[in-house]
Write a structure and sequence with these properties.
Elements (H helix, E strand, L loop, with lengths): L7 E5 L7 H11 L3 E6 L2 H13 L4 E4 L5 H15 L2 E6 L18 H22 L3 E11 L11 H21 L5 E7 L13 H11 L8 H12 L10 E4 L9
Parallel strand pairs: 1-2, 1-4, 2-3, 4-5, 5-6, 6-7
Helix pairs in contact: 1-7, 3-4, 4-5
This protein binds ligand 0WE.
Ligand 0WE binds next to loops.
Amino acid sequence: MGIMTGKRGIIFGLANDKSIAWGIAQQLKEAGAELAFTYMNEALEKRVRPLAESLGSEIILPCDVMNETELAAVFSALEERWGKIDFFVHAVAFANREDLKKPFSETSREGFQLALDVSAYSLVSMTRHALPIMNDGGSIVTMTYLGSVRSVPQYNVMGVAKAALESSVRYLAAELGERGIRVNAVSAGPIKTLAASGISNFKEKLSIAEQRSPLKRLVTQDEVGKSTLYLLSDLSTAVTGEVHYVDAGFSNNAG
Ligand code: 0WE
């Protein structure tokens, strides 16, 4: 018996065993949750399926979050298999690689829209599709980053997207509170994942975060998973509309 025994939910954003979504999935499974997963394309399916199956998951579905039809299909498949769900995890983001390099003022309209669509609007859309099958008292968690509230060099349009995402968390929390459905974000410190491997000088950024954080170290996928577990469980029933920092204290260190 764990704190998630009897709860069912779906995780969006698993890519491989370095993914933050994998740290979250392992914690949820260990706590007794029943999990479903999505993958963005066939290339990722090859990595996601074995990981999902290793946690006993039988529901593994394609989902490009830009595609409303695929989103609708995911939740209708869940309704068919499970009837209702108790939670979902949104661990999805994307911006053009060049937009995380160039001066921010050179962001194209197209690049801005893409980043906001994949990284922020997708939470709103996912929530809308989930609501008809979400149990009252359910919980939603998304992943964010400090670049939403401070200008972090090179984070650029992703910072704008994360600001929109965090604001969406507050509006969704206000709307869904009457059903006891909670919506929160986990703001993770920098972690070496597949997404991070596409960012120039990421190693140097990790080293700076390590030196400046009060705990003098980086955070792990496992630690992000443990905070997410708390927010998805009944340990946090009065917590909603929050951004919960899991960044080894980096964000509150002035010096
Ligand atoms: O949210 C993120 C990164 C998300 C991300 C990563 C990529 C790389 C590959 C979004 N889009 C892309 N597009 C690609 O083509 N993080 C919190 C990690 C991150 O990214 C940074 C950071 C940190 C931390 C970029 C610049 C500065 C710091």
